[in-house]
Amino acid sequence: MCGGPIRRPGVQLAPGRRASHSRGPVRGYAGVVDPAGFEGEGVGGMGGMGGTGRIGTGRLRRTAAAGVATAALVVPLTAAVTAAPAAAASCNLTTGPYQREVEKFLGLPVDGRQSASDCTAIRAFQGKHGITPTVGYAGIVTWRTMSTMLAQQAAGKTPNKAGKCPVNRGRIACVDLTRQLSWIQDGAALVYGPVPVRTGKDGTETRTGLKKVYRRELNHWSTIYHVWMPYSQFFDGGQAFHSTTKSMWNPPGSGGCVNMRDADAKKYWSLLKKGEDVFVYGTKPGT
To answer: For the chain: N or C, fewer Cβ within 10 A?
Structure first.
């Protein structure tokens, strides 16, 4: 959950605070390294991040060829490149499994071989969106993020072309987990969006189905993650639309809420009201 208001009988709240249930201690965010791919998502987090390390379909897989001691899996690159500048020392010059796809996405020369300039461009992309470790490796997490962006761009102004979000319920907020997109429509008419969103990670997925906005708070305080959740509109337990300062493409995802950019969350606040429908469908890549 993201810190939704769950009231319990007899619980006294301090003035100005809302009650929220807890799922236990929050773990810190750290990179996970794939022995074969050098790239993984984070573990734990704050402010609706959190999650289990994920590679590919979501479970970290080790191949039989990776029969190396755990201690040998993570080696500081500076130890191997002592004479190079600090920036170059933090680059992984290994060719990744998605090298050609990543090169094409970034507008680099497509030769399928990692170079110093490739690494610099990939690292910049990873750093912008919080993909760790930020070492310029063209692995599954980086390519999955880029693939999601391409699917979002392809949606254009007809996000409901496949007709998966109901058009017979009047105004409704649609959330497509597969493409990490959301929009508001009135019948078949697009009202706002589509906009990129950041939904629940593996283990705290945003739940699918037809919901209704049941509570709105202009600036909700999460007692789980100890952060403010501006423009919160709760639609399922503790799950809500709300703004965040994180990139919409920052893996592994939220604690279940639909994270939005500030301008989009503010627009949703002005367009939706209590009792209006929300429809969540699809499966987030990597969950």
So the answer is: C
Strand partners, 232: 217
Instruction: Return the axis-axis angle of helices 116-129 and 140-155, rounded to nearest 10°.
Output: 70
Backbone angles phi, psi at 148, to 5 degrees: -65, -40
The confidence band for 4, taking pLDDT boundaries of 50, 70 and 90, is: low
Q: Which residues pair with 78 in a beta bridge?
A: none
| Domain residue ranges of the chain, discontinuous segments joined by + | 30-61+72-151, 157-281
The domain defined by 157-281 folds into L,D-transpeptidase catalytic domain-like (2.40.440)
How confident is the model at residue 40, as a pLDDT?
Answer: 54
Q: Where are the beta strands (DSSP E) in the chain?
A: 30-31, 42-43, 171-176, 181-186, 189-196, 209-212, 215-222, 227-236, 239-243, 258-260, 277-281
Tell me, what's the pLDDT at 225?
85
